[in-house]
Specification:
Length: about 240
């Protein structure tokens, strides 16, 4: 086949013969990855695509046998499929690649050790840090996502997942409020910051603050009211609807 020119009818016939003759082999490779997710037939089609690429790009002059070239070509195509097409949630490409390699390393080490490998052992096999392994394990959770419409029980009329998740976190508004307050405080004059510090952090009375600043208690009260009004403006602006 390699000796025949492109477009030759005999070359096309031999190409088809080689592809058909190795389809079972490609299918066997695909089935090794079936338990990682994805539709089995989709994996087989991806493996066939890898086989076709191997047939078209194989160079017998390099000395290696065809299967020695085809096997990594088919495997690489399947791994690209897992990396790029089967993640329900977006994950950085580097983490996706590491997650795919992580599963293969875990399978190998489980066979060698007779038990599940530790994070340190996985990191050693992959040549990465333990923190990277942990991130890849977390990223694996994004491989498959459940629909919010899926029932949470087998009985008819069971609640849907969306009915049980997504409630407002009562602490969220507090986080936003703290950030707004932080920005408002940063814009205050030094004396206003000092007054707030004495009143709300040191617990000083208006009279004590006035004595320290050299002003009357009434003046401190007016200053404090003005400062608090200015701080409230930031929260009022946050709550205004956007155009």
């Amino acid at each position: 086949m390699a000796r025949l020119p492109a477009g030759d009818a005999e070359r096309a016939r031999l190409r088809e013969e080689v592809i058909r003759g190795h389809m079972d082999y490609a299918r066997g490779i695909a089935m090794r990855y079936r338990r990682r997710g994805g539709v089995a037939e989709d994996l087989v089609q991806v493996a066939y695509l890898g086989l076709v690429k191997a047939v078209d790009n194989f160079d017998p002059e390099r000395g290696a046998g065809f299967l020695a070239y085809a096997t990594p070509t088919i495997t690489g195509e399947i791994r690209r499929y897992f990396r790029d097409a089967t993640w329900d949630v977006h994950v950085a490409r580097g983490l996706r690649e590491l997650a795919v390699g992580l599963h293969a390393a875990a399978d190998e080490l489980t066979g060698e050790l007779g038990r599940q490998p530790t994070v340190a052992e996985l990191a050693g096999r992959l040549g990465v840090g333990q923190e990277e392994v942990i991130e890849a394990l977390d990223a694996s959770a994004a491989y498959s996502a459940d629909s919010l419409d899926c029932p949470v029980g087998p009985e008819p009329g069971a609640s849907e997942l969306g009915d049980l998740v997504g409630q407002a976190d009562p602490g969220f508004e507090a986080v936003v409020d703290r950030q707004v307050l932080k920005e408002q405080l940063a814009g205050l004059p030094d004396r206003d910051k000092r007054i707030l510090l004495m009143r709300f952090f040191r617990g000083q009375t208006l009279a004590q603050i006035g004595a320290e600043l050299g002003v009357s208690q009434m003046q401190v009260s007016r200053l404090l009211a003005r400062i608090l009004a200015r701080l409230r403006e930031g929260f009022d602006l946050r709550e205004e609807p956007r155009p």
